[in-house]
Amino acid sequence: MFFSGEFHPFRLPAPGLWLDVFQKIKAMGFNGVSFYTNWALLEGKEGDFSAEVSSHLNRSLKLRAQQISGIYLLARPGPYINAEVSGVGFPGWLARNPAALRTAEPGYLNATENYVSSIGSIIAKAQITKGGPIILVQPENEYSSGNPPFPDPVYFRDVEEQYRNAGVEVPFISNDNAPNGYFYDQGPPEWPIYGHDSYPIGFDDKIYQWPADALPINYGDLHEEQAPDTPYSVVECQAGSWDPWGGYGYNKTAARLGPDYERVFFKNIYSFAASIFNVYMGVGGTNWGNLGYPEGYTSYDYGAPITELRTVEREKYSQLKLQAMFLHSSPAYLSAIPQNNTYANGSYTGNPKIATTALFGNKTNFFVIRHAAYNSLSTNEYNITLLTSKGNVSIPQLGGSLSLVGRDSKFHVTSYDIGGINMLYSTAEIFTCRKFSNKNVLVVYGGPGETHELAIEGGAQPTVVEGNNDLVKFGNKLGSTVIQYTVDAERIIVKLSNGLYLYLLDRYSAYNYWSIDLPSDPVSGNYTNAESFSSSPIVKAGYLLRTAKVIKDGIYLTGDFNATTDIEVIGGPEQTKSLFVNSKPMEFSQDSHGVIKSVIRFAEPKLSWPDLSKTGWKVLDSLPEIQPGYNDELWTSASLTSSNNTERNLTTPVSLYASDYGYNTGYLLYRGQFRSNGNETLHLETQGGSAFGHSVWLNETFVGSFSGAITAYTWNQTFALPTQKGQNYVITVLVDQMGFEENGSAGTSEMKTPRGVLDYSLSGHEKSDISWKITGNLGGEDYRDRTRGPLNEGGLFAERQGSHLPGSPISSWKSSDLGPMEGLEGPGVAFYATYFDLDIPTGYDIPISISFANTTDETSSVRCQIYVNGYQFGKWVHNIGPQDIFPVPEGIWNYHGSNYLAVSLWALEEGGAKVENLELVAGPVVQSSYPRPIEMSPISKWHKRPGAY
Ligand code: IPT
Fold first, then answer.
1. Looking at the domain covering 796-927, what would its CATH class be?
2. N or C: which end of the chain has fewer CB within 10 A?
3. pLDDT single digits (tens) 499-527
4. Tell me, what's the pLDDT at 462?
5. 844-845 and 451-457: which strand pairing?
């Protein structure tokens, strides 16, 4: 089984932290990671695949996934990826290509060729056949709807062909957006393994509800119809959601798609014998540097099991660990066959309120229990009759009944192997089990207060060695020791005379248990394999355990701790004499059951960092364009009288679509010159996507703004211009565009939807009376900053000058004590910058974010962008929100030296604007074994930019 989490390396541009993420995924019991690559970031200029970025990717993919973490990879390079990135991963220059996107039109396929062959050969070098971690490749993405000739096998074959030509030899997998069955009948080896998405409760965070029919109970049947000969593959199983501008924030998302969702919805998928299962997202990320799509803001936390801050504190991380570890511990699951589950309500229980679906193996059977009304909040009692190696057995045997409490779903198993001991059945869910040389250990869990029963074949004598005796009943039936107990917050440990230890936990205590594969055979490195698994220790710890190894008679563990934590090594090699945690020798004691006990002490780090109202700021006017005498000689003249853009017919004498001139990212500026007739009103139509905005000046006079609205992708506005007849004027328009649109339907070209000024009129004039110039980022597609890539900087004066880059000579700028907290008294754009040192203690993971929170004024129209050491790490649209706190990873921050923080502030209203509070805030602090300092991301420095205007 390939059990993986989706992670977008390009959303964490600090490769020094990728291994951290891989280890946290591996620690959940997963063995895989699925990742997209983003064409728009790799080929910002047509024909110019970025070598800088690619060498990075190449090195990082191979080393970090494979070497230490032992994670297999599914590569999803697109070229279409969706992924809530600008233009679905399509570079802006594609907007000038008239070919229909995602079709076999040569214009489109040729445009993709350079990217696909370049990324394809990077992937090829990192394939498992070449000793790398990549075992699967998904070409395209959700080729699931479109204009005729959709579904076009010729096109799909062409995309595959491109990857094969680049040397990709591992199997392909597809990703239908639902089980539509496209191309299922072709199948491997030439066609991909058929895979699909599952997003059962959608993306609308306004409601915390599970609609009545949202549990996809027919996926198993569809798989049988569609692709029975291929492994059942859910390439994206919803594990969170994007959140739109003005949304409710990711903590709500995480709650809505929380541990109860994982229990009910994921177990439903496992009941179909999933072989390839990828949760989307496994890890949150950041839409830094304008890489996001228009509907989304900077954070792409997604409410994922691992947060954008890389913490594992969400309960859904722990819950998912229980599930993944169970499957990891259950090789019998791999060959179990889903039964005819059409009539699940009442089956096995006779209780119509309970639905049971089954998977039968050679010996071991698996049963998934849920409420018939899957979203029921009530408690349903049941008794159940299950097929075991001793025939049908009615459970519980020792009286009473079982219960399903609220939104829950459970696995019951029968005839389950615990290292040579047959467990006849268990209604408690299995976390893991191991056979060590001196004992067998089974760790099970249940909901608080529930009654569970399990039966171990043979007549072994049970003894409660820890916990409340009164909660346990023993019996001897069916030639087995039957144990019934009530789940308590205090664990119960039962020892059987056959050497089996049962750890009976409640779900929440189970979250503290870990079992990490030992490194094994050097050929597979740390990849999961039977040998490493069967001997890997079971450890009770706390926040996170990362790695385990055994050297001679010592056990070496690494992990992260957020409190002083008791450690118990419950099972491991028999002859252990010493324990090391995070390389430190620990106090060592072993009880009569062979359990090693110790304690790791948490020491609060001393934290201090600068108060941003005291670092001393400098300020630059970032709108010199409205000053008299401003020279726009070096700007691009808007001179194209036609456009290849297929999404909108030109209604102006010359195109003003930004991408027609190679400006594909960030802020856009226009200057229109005209001679006045003394009585003008200007009508303007701009387009920038959800939450975009614009401001307009006549010479240095502000004439108005559009502050943005969630549903306003386009805006029409009329301005009375205070003109005098016969004078020459310049109209300056600043447009915040939010990225290119999506392109979900093949053969359409929505991605090309233009950005910037669409149309205008000036009363009493021909349109041609205005002559326009345009700029975006300096150089457009010949972008200057090869390190941070083509999207990071937009068209603000300060950005064109590179003033966001460290080393920028700010000493010549004006001083501003409070910087952005001083702000502007009228509309305009200011650019603030400050240098300060950080000295953060090593040995800890201390995520630092920039906070704009705690403002009293919720409505003022102000847009800020923040840049840390040159990387744009936040786009704050105060009047729309919801994001006020912007995480910046270590590695972008320099935790042990100088940092350069810059903030652009665009005040859109007459009264000006300021940031009330700007501070550095720490996320959850953990004492961490992850090697620090973190390797710095490439931080190229400011130098005077030739040709900057
Ligand atoms: C699925 C996309 O494949 C993925 O890239 C991402 O956009 C995700 O949606 C939503 O976050 S498409 C699925 C909604 C059918």
1. mainly beta
2. C
3. 999 999 999 999 999 998 887 654 455 55
4. 98
5. unpaired
